[in-house]
């Protein structure tokens, strides 16, 4: 059976791979608002999991890395979704929340000691972020009726449930380590890893879907422009080349060899029409 530490180390490599994939996608494809936030969130998820692994060896480094990195990753993902959906991004003070959480965790550690209370507080904050993200995506789904938005919303709603269960398990069985290798904890670690990966995949698919939609709109506009141009060209008649003209009667010779008056020739080979009038000299 897998132990919790192996699952967490697997997560570190998975987030590294996701970062490479999203970075490469962003370099070779058109990206939209919020994409950079998701790339940055992968970096902090990577750092946060490293903090979980080293926490048992050095709890201070674990506290410095994990709560700050995980909460900042949640803020970045929420901000990225808001910008992607065309909403105004998060205010700058939102990015101070992870730093505040870090300071609170350090104060609790140096005053009360290593207690599951600070971990529960941290999970509560993540619960709020993921719930807010899921709610926002569900509201967007009700407007656009895009199944991918509904899927992303459901994944975001699963995360808070997993966080609640994990918080309860930690409060009941905490012994100074976050890496507990019994079946319930390993299962929760694995499920959180899977949902997190699905979130990034769904965001990439949403991004690609928007690119395809933009491409279809551009193609439709080009086809419409070409249709209008073809119609205009079909209605346009041009006189070009040398036109033989009689030096005496001023008739013009057409391609069939017939000699036509200027008015008849112009009517035949152009879209112009004549109207009778007099110039000032003849009038």
Give a written overview of the molecule.
With 283 residues, the chain is an all-alpha fold. It folds into 2 domains: 214 residues, Rhopdopsin 7-helix transmembrane proteins (Up-down Bundle), CATH 1.20.1070; 48 residues, no CATH class. Helices cover 72% and strands 1% of the residues. The protein contains 8 helices and 2 strands. A two-stranded antiparallel ribbon has the order 1-2. Strand 1 and strand 2 form a beta hairpin. Helix 2 packs antiparallel against helix 3 and helix 3 packs parallel to helix 5. The radius of gyration is 34 Å and the shape is rod-shaped. The chain starts with a helix and ends in a 14-residue tail after the last helix. The mean pLDDT is 84.
């Amino acid at each position: 059976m897998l132990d919790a530490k192996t699952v967490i180390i697997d997560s570190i490599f998975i987030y590294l791979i996701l970062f490479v994939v999203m970075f490469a996608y962003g370099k070779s494809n058109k990206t939209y608002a919020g994409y950079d936030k998701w790339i940055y969130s992968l970096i902090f998820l990577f750092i946060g999991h490293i903090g979980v692994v080293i926490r048992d060896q050095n709890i201070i480094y674990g506290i410095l890395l994990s709560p700050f990195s995980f909460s900042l990753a949640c803020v970045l993902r929420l901000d990225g979704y808001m910008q992607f959906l065309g909403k105004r991004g998060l205010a700058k003070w939102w990015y101070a929340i992870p730093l505040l959480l870090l300071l609170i965790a350090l104060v609790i550690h140096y005053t009360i000691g290593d207690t599951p209370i600070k971990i529960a507080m941290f999970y509560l904050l993540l619960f709020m972020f993921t719930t807010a993200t899921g709610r926002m995506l569900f509201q967007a789904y009700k407007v656009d009726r895009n199944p991918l938005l509904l899927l992303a919303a459901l994944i975001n709603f699963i995360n808070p449930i997993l966080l609640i269960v994990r918080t309860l398990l930690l409060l009941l069985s905490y012994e100074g380590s976050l890496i507990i290798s019994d079946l319930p904890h390993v299962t929760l670690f694995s499920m959180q890893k899977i949902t997190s990966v699905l979130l990034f995949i769904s965001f990439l698919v949403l991004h690609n879907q928007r690119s395809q939609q933009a491409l279809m709109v551009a193609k439709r506009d080009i086809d419409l422009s070409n249709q209008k141009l073809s119609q205009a060209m079909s209605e346009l008649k041009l006189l070009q080349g040398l036109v033989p003209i009689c030096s005496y009667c001023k008739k013009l010779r057409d391609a069939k060899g017939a000699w036509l008056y200027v008015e008849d020739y112009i009517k035949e080979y152009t879209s112009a029409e004549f109207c009778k009038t007099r110039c000032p000299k003849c009038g």
